[in-house]
Amino acid sequence: MSSDNKRQGQEKPLGQLVKGIMKAYGLEDKMKSFDLIAAWPELMGPAVAQRTTDIRIENNTLYLKIDSSVMRDELFHGKQIIIARCNQFVGEELIRDVWFS
Questions:
Q1: What domains lie within the chain, and their CATH numbers?
Q2: pTM surpassing 0.90?
Q3: How far apart are CA 11 and CA 80, in angstroms?
Q4: How many of the other CB atoms lie within 10 Å of CB of 1?
Q5: How far is CA 50 from CA 12, 16, 32, 55, in A?
Q6: CB 87 within 8 Å of CB 94
Q7: Res 7: pLDDT
Q8: CA quadruple 65, 26, 84, 34: dihedral sign
Q9: Which of 1, 26, 61, 66 might form a disulfide with 72, Cβ 3.0–4.6 angstroms?
Q10: Residues contacting residue 96 through CB under 8 Å, at least 6 positions apart
Q11: For residue range 17-76, what is the model confidence (pLDDT) as tens digits?
Q12: What per-residue string of b and e applies to 51-80 under the rule 16 or more CB within 10 Å gives b?
């Protein structure tokens, strides 16, 4: 068996290799966090996105800085909906809680 034949049996699609590397280095959740933050306007709509001045994710908690106290109160009452939308977007339970400031 030549070395070319050995290599052919080990070939994997590039996407699969990248996913394996990201998982090995613990970057998979970080990338999902970046994707979620980038999709915030799409997930919550333009009105919420315009009032959101800071978004970050740490230890499965979504931290939102909202510049309107009225909207902050409304969003607080819809925490479970926000969590569900975010987790549905990333395809796993990435967010477990939401904190507002």
A1: 28-100 (3.30.300)
A2: no
A3: 43
A4: 6
A5: 43, 36, 22, 12
A6: yes
A7: 53
A8: positive
A9: 66
A10: 60, 61, 83
A11: 887 887 787 778 888 999 999 999 999 999 999 999 999 999 999 999 999 999 999 999
A12: bbeebebeeeebebebeeeebbeebeeeee
